[in-house]
Specification:
With 171 residues, the chain is α+β, with helices and mostly antiparallel strands. The protein has 2 domains: 6-91, Glutaredoxin (3-Layer(aba) Sandwich); 98-167, Arc Repressor Mutant, subunit A. It has helices at residues 14-18, 21-34, 75-82, 98-112, 119-127, 133-142, 162-167, and strands at 6-11, 41-46, 58-61, 65-67, 117-118, 145-149, 156-160. The strands form 2 sheets. It has a 4-stranded mixed sheet, with helices on one face. A 3-stranded antiparallel sheet has the order 5-7-6. A hairpin with a 3-residue loop joins strand 3 (58-61) and strand 4 (65-67). Helix 2 (21-34) crosses helix 3 (75-82). It binds FE2/S2 (inorganic) cluster (FES). FE2/S2 (inorganic) cluster (FES) binds next to helix 1.
């Protein structure tokens, strides 16, 4: 925005809240005010960032970065970064983050299996990457996977969507 230097979106969706987002956000608001950063850094909450399994999540623009798995104790390092200090790289989500790489490997395996698996097969594949049924359901809700009846058997089949292909560079 033209009157701020940075814009932050801090997720307050259910999954992030269950893991302490409210405490993180309260501390972040307090620290931004205490350091008089609440004018150059504009913060809003939001309902999801589509990274529900690794929250609490915070997006920072124009840096175009996501801090994930943020805990209240991480807030001073985030605020130090927003003040011109070092990036807290341990919180930074990118393609080489272990959790993100694990998801990429799962989706690559799904692609290699023909991107068309039945329910028991997709659960088994996810399980081999330490991802559970709830995670699969989350991918369906967030549009990274789709579930459709097979044309012949009418049994549910699961596939990754173009959104997942783009995110994990699997197209
Ligand atoms: S609930 Fe925060 S990313 Fe989904």
């Amino acid at each position: 925005m033209y009157w701020t230097e940075r814009h932050i979106f801090a997720c307050t969706g259910n999954h992030c809240n269950q893991k302490g987002a409210a405490k993180v956000i309260n501390r972040l608001r307090f620290e931004l005010m205490r350091r008089k950063l609440n004018t150059p850094v504009h913060m809003n909450t939001c309902g999801t960032i589509d990274l529900c399994d690794i929250g609490p999540n915070i997006v920072v623009y124009p840096d175009n970065i996501v801090f994930s798995n943020v805990e209240e104790n991480d807030v001073p390092d985030i605020v130090a970064f927003l003040s011109g200090g070092e990036m807290p790289t341990r919180l930074l989500l990118n393609a080489t983050t272990p959790a993100e790489m694990n998801r990429e490997h799962f989706f690559a395996a799904l692609r290699d299996a023909g991107n068309h698996l039945g329910e028991s097969e997709i659960i088994a594949l996810a399980g081999s990457y330490d991802l559970d049924r709830a995670w699969i359901d989350e991918q369906l809700r967030r549009g990274f996977m789709s579930k459709k009846p097979d044309e012949e058997t009418t049994a549910d089949t699961y596939a990754m969507t173009s959104k997942a292909m783009h995110r994990y560079r699997l197209g």
